[in-house]
Amino acid sequence: MSVITNTPAGPPEGVLGQPAEPRKAAPATGLPATFDDGTEHRHSLGLLTADGTADGITGGATDGTTDGGGAADSPVPALPAGADLRVVPARHPWRWVGTALVTLLVAGIAYSLATNPRWEWGVVAQWFTAQSVVNGLLETLKLTVIAGTLGFVLGFVLALMRLSASPLLVGVAWTFSWIFRSTPLLVQLLLWYNLGYLYEKISLGIPFTDVRFFEASTTTLISQFAAAVLGLSLNQAAYSAEIIRGGILSVDAGQLEAAAALGIPAWRRNTRIVLPQAMRAILPNAFNEIIGLVKGTSVVYVLAYSELFYTVQVIYNRTQQVLPLLLVATLWYVVITSVLSVAQYYIERHYSRGSVRNLPPTPWQRIRANLAPGRRPAHPAAPNPTTASPAAPQAAGQEITRKDLP
Predict the structure, then answer these.
(1) Closest-CA residue to 234 (of 138, 340, 146, 141)
(2) What's the rounded mean pLDDT across residues 111-118?
(3) In terms of residue numbers, what domain contains 190?
(4) Are 307 and 300 in contact (CB under 8 A)?
């Protein structure tokens, strides 16, 4: 890379009116000493002086003497005109070693899964789409949808309470999150299912009076399904509240101040400015929580509720085919989480439009780009300083000179 300055090529003026020594011609280095417009060429290692030494390499003098005890400047090596420079790609031997080791490991695992008869893949295929297993899968999905919806709605309310200026609301929301994040989900499910031991009846009315609008037995209301929904929803709300609160706090407060100064109403500020930007920080953790909730529904087996894992347990207790039935449940969990991961990618891609210049390519676009020769998927492009730097002088009406170029 060469540095170009606007130093005149003619003889410089002397100091305090004294005439300067005439400039000598630079030695042949394969590079022009001056350009057509009279500007002087500086080598990337320093200024080529008249005696063939480089000024500015070591900070020393150009007459062969040393500066501050340093070594004398050495001549710049000459570059022959029309030299053939070949670009050699970087070598990564350890990358190939790691790739070979991982390939052998994956091949060994695949070979073991395909040749070991104790996996009993025929039994797995037999029970994978059995009606009882499909019914358990639907119950798992139903618990996930209901508990996830209630959990995130309640978590949003708790997040707003934590951000409130009321000490009471802040204290109640913090206590809720503290309790439900401090106790295991299994314990919470058992407590809700045995709530009838503490309260025989559940009534709705005016507190501290005998007025009752609704009253029912606790054991009737808190069934297996109700206990599962209560336990999963409240546990999910405690974690969702912290995720949503962190996402809201990640938005720069200056944007709210600017929106308030423009007179934008508070509701519009929150829904059109804060939440769209907070979603970029909320979505990754929120989807991780939903995926964890799908697998967390398997804990409901302690309530003898017929979700996927409990159904598989009932079957292998009857047939004694433990491992194949566990593989059936595992494969269904993998299918559900894979679908959620694909949905997470596209939703995050949608909300990233305000943070990246170009959207990342979709998996289908990557496949087409890899199959088509010479095509590459579009990636976010950084601004080019080569074309961006001359824009400032042009905007100011100034003339672009060679020193403005990189």
Answers:
(1) 146
(2) 91
(3) 129-368
(4) yes
